[in-house]
Each structure stands twice: as structure tokens, then as C-alpha cells.
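**Archive record**
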Amino acid sequence: MFFRISFIGCLTAGLFISGFSFAAGSEKVIPPLSESIRLEQPLAFCGESVPLDTAEVKEDMEKELLLSLWDRDQAILWLKRSTRYFPVIEKMLSQAGMPDDLKYIALAESALRPHVGSPKGAIGFWQFLPETGRRYGLAVNQFIDQRRNLVASTRAAIAYYSALYERFGSWSLAAAAFNMGEEGLQAEIMAQGVNTFYRLYLPLETQRYLFRILSAKLILTQPERYGFHLKTEDYYPPVTFTPVELTTYEETSLTVVAQAAQTDFKRVKDLNPELRGHYLEAGTYTLALPENTPPDFLERFKLAHQQWKQQRLERIYIVQPGDNLSTIAEQFRVPLAALLIWNQIDLNNPLHPGDRLIINPAERSTDTR
């Protein structure tokens, strides 16, 4: 006989295990929600006490914790990704003499995903806006976006939070300023005559912001209390790589970099999420390559780059009158999208007779699947 059991009923009865399965009577159960939000220990953010004895503060904290616990899939990913990225963030915070709790801001901002973006244009681990990222030393342009780089963006976040703390004298206010902008926060402090986060009336998103960070801290520091029973092997391993400084004096393909590293294009992109597109512009880069990259990468790169340059010279097509991208792609039996990638074409700029295009003619596939 089968029964229909509601999701809320299962949570209340404590029948879910780790967000994965049902197991009535098991020791590893999700506690009732009424118990999960019962905060019996003092709570602090960066050493600053959270006044849970204030009714409004207690309600706001409980609401955000409930929302985080409801989204159990996300909370599990928080836990699993924390072991991948937190070691780097924790080390950098410690070396800078910054509070360890700041790491939970990155978790709450991006769920530790390098490419996640917001409707306002914030991107990366710490969700920097372009102008703020540039102000704190991040390269943000059409070729590279260091907001997606863990080390570079954390270094910028440390500098920004140091400046915010110096200005406002409180880590809670520094977090609020990061969310709503320092000028907006300063205006509210002056208008309301209050300089304590928990007593300020701020935009609703900012009012929730710190409590969301605190809910992430509670779940990550006490996962079993909230019904998350992960084994050591469930967590993702830390990011490991071999750093290599590469100087290119002209444009080169990231496929060439991958070939020289004896890995895949995808692996290079995954290890260097700040790199945009398929090419490196001329310049000096510190690249993260797979940890098992064989020695002599630079020598292999020079050889592979020269071969790539020669092939490009042999595959140039001169645009003729009446040509367009579609007819050229059809003529050479290649996807239109491939022409755009090979030549970094801006569709807003029309082709003209005499323009030079690089084309890799279609070859017979050796894939027998």
C-alpha cells in the first residue's frame, strides 16, 4: 500500500536524511524545523555579537535560517564546495589579519561559483561590480575578468573590506556597505542618526543580507545539527594546480596552451575562469595548469604556437564582393559559429571585400560512434 507524504510533513517528522533519502527510525535524521531554529548559543559575526534578545533580530535570523534549510540542495553544495575553495580564502584572510567569518560572505554571495552573475552586473566569487573590481585592482575587460579568479578576487575583497571597516568601524556595517554601497549606507547613518546595523532601517535586501551570511555560518559549522551527514569522501577536494608564468608577444589560442600543457581546452578554462573567449591577448599571465603538467611547458608552448601561426597563414581567405558569413561558411562546409570563434568577429561590424578570414576547412571525422 502506498501513501502520499507531504514534503513539509516529512521535514517536521524528521524523515529526511542529508537531503538524499527517507529513513524512518534512523539516527541520522533532519531535526524538526522548530528545533533547528532554536539558537541556544551566542551568535557573532567577525567577533561582533548578534543581539538575538531583540525580537526583530531573532525573527530575521530565524527566517533566513529557515530559508537556507529549506533549500537543502543548495546547502549540501555549500558544504561540498567549501572544502574546494575555503582553504585558499582562509589562508589569505589569516595572512591579512582579517576575520575568518568573512569567508561566509563569498559563500552567501555566489555559492562559491566563479561565473555566477547578478542582474546588476556583479560577477564572481565575491560578486564585485565592474567599477568596484577595477578600483581594487582587478582586470575586467573583454579578454579577462579577474572577478572570477579566486585568488585575485579574494585579494580585492580583503582590500575592500579593510577600507569599509576603517570607514564604518564595524564588520556588520562593512558587510552592509558591500551590499548596498558605502555612500548609500553613509547617507542612511547620517539621516537616521544611528550607526549600528541592527538598529538601522536599510533596503530590504540589505536587511536580510547579514542574516543570510550568518545562516551559512551556522550550517557550515554545525552541519550534523541541521541534518547534513556528509562523509569525508562526499566533500570536493581542494583546488590544486601548477602556476606557470606565460608571456605572449602576440595573440595566441587557448587551445595551443592546452596542447602544450597536454590537457584539454576545458581543463584550462576551468582552472582559469577569469579567461574569456578562446584566445589570449599579448601580455604576461600567471596561468593555473593541471598539477600533473609535465615539465618544459614553455618549450612545448613555443613550438605549438609557431605551428599554430603557420597554419593560420595557410588558411587565410580573402573576402570577395558579394560574400557574407553564411555563404563563406557554406562554401567551406564549416559552422557559422566556428567562423565567429576563429576570427573573433563582432556581428555589429560588417564584412568588406578584402577582409582576411582564417578558416579551418572541414575534415572527415574519425569518430566512428
Summary: The beta strands are 16-17, 21-22, 44-45, 48-49, 242-248, 252-253, 279-280, 283-289, 316-318, 356-358. The longest strand covers residues 242-248. Residues 1-26, 363-369 have pLDDT under 50 and may be disordered.
